[in-house]
Amino acid sequence: MNLNSLFNKQKQLDEYIVKEKELEGQDLLPRKTVALICELYECVNEARFFKYWSEDQRPNTIESKLTSNGKAVVYNPLLEEYVDTIHFTLSIANDLGVHEHKYIQTEPQDLNKLVLGITNLATIIPTSREQYHVKSLLNNVIALGYQLGFDEKQVIEAYHEKNKENYERQENGY
Fold it and tell me: What is the pLDDT of residues 62-103, one digit of tens each?
């Protein structure tokens, strides 16, 4: 999955938010990391793979919701939460000077262990600020997307839609 076309779009959104919210000069990395972890676990909750106690472990992939203009649309909550995870991963990468990434294919692994590994990497980054941790985070987040069944085209299209929604939210006082 090549997400290199998204780094600059994320940078532009982040710069817009920083300006609009008057956050210039603030170290947002710890807050972005918490946001990443929250979005990751919202994604995991939609994926349902960890719910060993439940007979329904199928991912939540089809729902309907109302748009801001009251129109009902069908969407994929799992993909939406995964893309939110991508947004914060790219934002953190940009902050630490990683503006492109070449995915290194990995063998599929237990999703629980993959998510714990992503969490571990995310918690290390605000202290280490090491690019190799960021690159590993990117690689593991991309691997998660593949294991959840998403392809590059789906993710990029969903990213663009969510990016547009994020701008609209900012303009509407979110």
Answer: 877 776 677 777 789 999 999 999 999 999 999 999 999 999
Range list of H helices, 48-109: 77-95
3-state SS track over the chain: CCCHHHHHHHHHHHHHHHHHCCCCCCCCHHHHHHHHHHHHHHHHHHHCCCCCCCCCCCCCCCEEEECCCCCEEEECHHHHHHHHHHHHHHHHHHHCCCCCCCCCCCCCCCHHHHHHHHHHHHHHHHHHCCHHHHHHHHHHHHHHHHHCCCCHHHHHHHHHHHHHHHHHHHHCCC
- At residue 63, the 3 state secondary structure works out as strand
- pLDDT class for 174, splitting at 50, 70, 90? confident
Measured over the CA atoms of residue 82, residue 83, residue 84 and residue 85, the dihedral's sign is positive
